[in-house]
Design brief:
It is a single chain. With 394 residues, the chain is an alpha/beta fold. It has two domains: 199 residues; 139 residues, Rossmann fold, CATH 3.40.50.300. The protein is 51% helix and 7% strand. The chain contains 20 helices and seven strands. Strands 4-5-3-6-7 form a five-stranded parallel sheet, with helices on both faces. A two-stranded antiparallel sheet has the order 1-2. Helix 6 packs across helix 9 and helix 8 packs antiparallel against helix 9. The protein starts with a helix and ends in a 13-residue tail after the last strand.
């Protein structure tokens, strides 16, 4: 399991702190940064982020639920517990009232972990399960307090990205590995985590994705403006026109190769439009995006299949592209391509127009991997799935 297997101790064995510190110091911000980052005493009276992280790891390995997991489950949840707050040094600040906040630390930590684990060669499936747990580790604390339909849709969405059993283990360790100014707050976190797991049991999505009647029912379920407006198990009238393939992935990850191998066309390519419009990747892209959207509309109005070829690394950017396609009732197939980190620099250099390393670095900061809550179909083109499939499957 490349790196991850060496992190987690066997149940009952000592925690290998020196190994964990070296792991964090290599591309994940480092122990010193965690130790230098304070936290608000209301929910973190124990002190800095590193103190909290150590307490969470200690709480995790003491949990019967963690010890009952198989080797892969223990490795994934251990890595997620160790890394769950690595985004805090970059996001912690004081608000207008003088209180310390770390809004956005889960998303930042996810991006940091994805880039670091990719560089280490951690297999895709293992890496993405760890990243999903980091991104959503706080949901059990508040998810159950939402309106029932909203809580159900959140549980459904997350079930397509992670295992709720593992999420509950990490959340319980996070709740136990702290000191709250009011002990009732800690007790409430533990209660909410237990209730969240019960909700997922009721939905039959503790260890596998929620069941949907079909792909289109799933898309409409998540598109509905009001949670609860559609049921996941009720088939929907399929009014889709042609299928649009939307490519995703870093430059030099193999998107053009996949399109050529599968004979997909015509292609609306942002790289080609940059060449035609003489716009560098480092310049403003407004003109390129406008031209691409208009070219896409020509195919969409005709109800004709085509491909949209761009990096589409940020979920928010993909949502805009998918929204354009769905506005014309297209069926969307996301194809995500990834190259191993050790091969990526050479592949980038071999491009007709290599992307500057600085630009690649910025892309890594907003890099996310699509899942089935975004489109009708998602294909992941990766070299090494590893011992664990991602997204989760039944």
């Amino acid at each position: 399991m490349t790196d991850l297997a060496a992190l987690a101790p066997a149940p009952g064995a000592p925690i290998p702190w020196s190994r964990l510190e070296a792991f964090l110091d290599d591309g994940l911000g480092g122990v010193a940064a965690l130790a230098a980052t304070p936290q608000d005493a209301t929910f973190h009276a124990e002190g800095d982020v590193w103190t909290h992280t150590r307490m969470v790891v200690e709480a995790l390995v003491a949990l019967p639920a963690w010890r009952a997991l198989d080797d892969v489950g223990r490795a994934v949840t251990f890595a997620a517990a160790l890394l769950h707050d690595v985004g805090k040094p970059q996001t912690t600040r004081r608000d207008d009232d003088g209180r310390l906040t770390s809004r956005g630390h889960s998303g930042r930590g996810e991006a940091m972990a994805r880039a670091a684990l990719w560089r280490r060669g951690v297999p895709f499936g293992l890496r993405e399960h760890v990243c999903a747990l980091i991104r959503w580790h706080q949901v059990p604390f508040f998810g159950i307090t939402r309106e029932p339909a909203d809580a159900e849709r959140t549980a459904a969405r997350l079930s397509l990205r992670l295992r709720h059993r593992w999420l509950a283990v990490v959340a319980e360790a996070d709740a136990r590995g702290r000191r709250c100014a009011d002990p009732a707050d800690q007790a409430r976190m533990l209660e909410h985590t237990a209730l969240w797991l019960e909700l997922c049991r009721d939905l039959d999505c503790v260890d596998a994705p929620l069941r949907f009647a079909d792909d289109h029912a799933r898309v409409l379920y998540f598109e509905a403006e009001r949670p609860g407006a559609r049921r996941p198990d009720v088939a929907a009238h399929d009014d889709t026109t042609a299928e649009v393939v939307v490519m995703c992935g870093l430059p030099a990850s193999g998107k053009d190769t996949w399109l050529a191998a599968h004979g997909v066309g015509p292609v609306v390519s942002l790289d080609d439009l940059r060449d035609q419009l003489d716009v560098e990747p480092t310049e403003g892209q407004g003109e390129v995006i406008a031209a691409a959207r208009e070219a896409a509309r020509v195919h969409l109005r005709a109800g004709a299949p085509f491909a949209w070829n761009a990096t589409n690394l940020a979920a928010s950017l993909r949502a805009k592209v998918i929204g354009l396609m769905r506005g014309y009732r297209a069926r969307v197939h996301l194809v995500y391509c990834e190259a191993p980190a050790h091969a990526h620099p050479a592949r980038n250099r071999d491009r007709a127009r290599p992307v500057p390393a600085r630009a690649i670095g910025r892309m890594l900061g907003r890099w996310s991997v699509p899942a089935l809550d975004e489109a009708h179909r998602v294909t992941h083109v990766v070299d090494d799935d590893g011992p664990l499939r991602w997204p989760p499957a039944r």
